Amino acid sequence: MLRAAGAGVGDEVVVPAFGNTEVAQAVSLAGAVPVFADIDPVTYCLDASAVEAAVTSRTVAIVVVHRFGRSADIAGLHRLGQRHGLLVLEQGESETPYSEVGERRQRAAYLSAKLKGVWTPDEGDGHTFQQYVVRVPGNGRPDRDAFARAIRAKGVECSVPVKTPVHRMPGFRRDVCLPETERAADETLALPIAGEMSRRQLHRMVSACNALGGLLQLAF
Questions:
Q1: Each residue of 119-146: pLDDT tens digit?
Q2: Which fold has domain 98-219?
Q3: pTM recorded for the entire structure
Q4: Cα 10 from Cα 30, distance rounded (Å)
């Protein structure tokens, strides 16, 4: 799509650093330069004001990635694109079967109501909860990693959704200030929300998280 739009050598394309490398790689393969902009801390998608700050006379496009089942502010980004004459491309994640969306939302609502000591995700704009991503408050990565180890020891499968932002990876390393991206990479943790999970399993996960979450809160 970038090549079809004419993106090539000497052009810049604004992309998120919070995620995997495939978007930045696609820009490079088209011959253009990926320019990283910061994310909105609620949606984990590109922030329109950060994108605007990253736009230069060489910018030709923006690649918007919808994250974890939560949509970006695509209307705001399209308005920005129109103002600057930029192509706005969207990349979604794999589609969640419609039959599973309602079940995931029910599980997400249960978790958001019961979890303590972590920051639960925003549920706006038709969130499909492809991943249920919380933030572990405290001192960033050390506390998040300790939290993950503790609940894994109690049988809770969890994962770090973005271990290293793309602008910190070899081949794409940039000296750019992306505070929300860095913070999200240090604090986020994806908890299981698979369709086969029973209410009993969800309750056990909540108990494991809350036992540690309460201790974290007391330590502040």
A1: 999 987 789 999 999 999 888 999 999 9
A2: Aspartate Aminotransferase, domain 1 (3.90.1150)
A3: 0.90
A4: 11
